[in-house]
Amino acid sequence: MAWAEIDCGRIRENIRTIRNAIGPKPGICAVLKANAYGHGLREMAAFLSRNALVEMLAVGTLYEAKEAEQVLRRTGADTPILILCPIGAEEAEEALRDGSIRRDRTIFSVYSESHFQQLNQLGQRLGKKLRVHLRLDEWDSGMGIEYRAFLRTQQQYFAGDGTEVCGVYGHMYTSYGENREATRRELEAFDRVIQKIEPAVRSGLTVHVLNSPLSFMFPEYAYDMVRSGTAIYGLNGRDSERLQPIMRVCGRIFAVREVNSEAPLSYESSGRPGERRRIARVMLGFGDCPHLLTQPCLRAEIRGRTWPLADEPCMDQLCVDITGSEDIREGDTAVLLGGKGTAIQDVLEWNGVNYVHGDWMPVTTERMEKVLTEDA
Predict the structure, then answer these.
(1) Number of domains present in the structure of the chain
(2) Alpha-carbon gap, residue 26 to 232, rounded angstroms
(3) Which among 49, 95, 245, 350 has the fewest CB atoms less than 10 Å away?
(4) Which of the pair, 159 or 268, is modelled with greater confidence?
(5) pLDDT tens digits, residue range 267-300?
(6) Residue 242 falls within a domain, yes or no?
(7) What does the pLDDT read at residue 357?
């Protein structure tokens, strides 16, 4: 059995830390894309909305929006859902007509003038305006509406009779880099665009540009809301002292054996001639946390001590080399991530992984049970 423990007390603490950084006015949009970075979209959406911890949820795809919508219907929350990726009018119409998403709760991202026109026409056909956020971009690269093009044509977006533009946002290319001056220049360029929106229009918009790391570096640009993904999950490496990882990836030991070099522990034998090892088999494998288990150097915490993996994991299980131990037994818990000596930072250091890519270390599959601890 494998499971991921999610510490709800740490979630609350991380959100308090974010609010302390950005001040009392801006809201927080919790980013739940990629199954909430492996922490469980359904579980996170339910906990955050039921406890009114954030002002908005953000997902990456229409599928994720449908998942979040089902959760919010159960909790009875009215939290808006922002879809960050561009959704075509045809698939948006199907989801709206079959009721799998709600028009009054769902917010679509607009990436181009043509995309806006498609959604505007859909709203006209439905007889009800669709809520949208305009994604702006400094470059004409397909990542959003280019700044100059937006300023030339902004009135058409705010006058659409099939859409309600209720927000504007951007993403800073340099936000995960080390050059803060480059990031500041990007933020200043975005701000010049926002300042040129008519005051009467601007007052009705939710403007957001800061992601998790930038919320701590440039809180003066928090505007009306910040998008917090890695910070809520405690994955923001630059603020590891302020933020706490919320997940422990665990597996149950189902067998302890003394084995010789001929005994295969994975897909083939990898022992040295004459070698005898004591191994613990754990019900946890690639099918549970594939990104983590592709790292060549991993350890597991068992009974407060760390032990190396004995061989390459299989789809559903792995072996830990516990040679020299006398107290480890069947039924014990092995902590592969988030335990003593197995924190995310430890894994990154062992494997020489950049902290940005470390965001994906806790990504787990949907089959892995998510267990919320504390009074969730």
Answers:
(1) 2
(2) 16
(3) 350
(4) 159
(5) 766 656 667 899 999 999 999 999 999 999 999 9
(6) no
(7) 78
Judgement on whether residues 101 and 16 belong to the same structural domain of the protein: yes
Three-class secondary structure assignment of the chain = CEEEEEEHHHHHHHHHHHHHHHCCCCEEEEECHHHHHCCCHHHHHHHHHHCCCCCEEEECCHHHHHHHHHHHHHHCCCCCEEECCCCCHHHHHHHHHCCCCCCCCEEEEECCHHHHHHHHHHHHHHCCCEEEEEEEECCCCCCCEEHHHHHHHHHHHHCCCCEEEEEEEECCCCCCCCCHHHHHHHHHHHHHHHHCCCHHHHCCCEEECCCHHHHHHCHHHCCCEEEECCCCCCCCHHHCCCCCCCEEEEEEEEEEEEEECCCCCCCCCCCCCCCEEEEEEECCCCCCCHHHHCCCCCEEEECCEEEEECCCCCCCCEEEECCCCCCCCCCCEEEEECCCCCCHHHHHHHHCCCCCHHHHCCCCCCCCEEEEECCC
State which residues form the domain around 266.
247-373
Q: Based on the domain organization, do 216 and 321 belong to the same domain?
A: no
What six digits make up the tokens of 327? Answer: 């107290």
Same domain, 131 and 189: yes
pLDDT of residue 268: 64
302 contacts 253 by C-beta, under 8 angstroms: yes
Can you read off the two tokens belonging to residue 213? 């790391």
- Amino acid 140 reads D
Looking at residue 376, what is its pLDDT?
44
208 and 255 co-located in one domain: no
Among residues of the chain, what percentage have pLDDT more than 70? Answer: 96
Q: What pTM did the predictor assign?
A: 0.93
Shared domain for 195 and 171, answered yes or no, is yes
Note whether residue 214 is domain-resident.
yes
**56-59/81-83 β-pairing:** parallel
Query: Domain boundary residue among 206, 234, 262?
Result: 234
What percent of the chain has a predicted confidence (pLDDT) above 90? 85
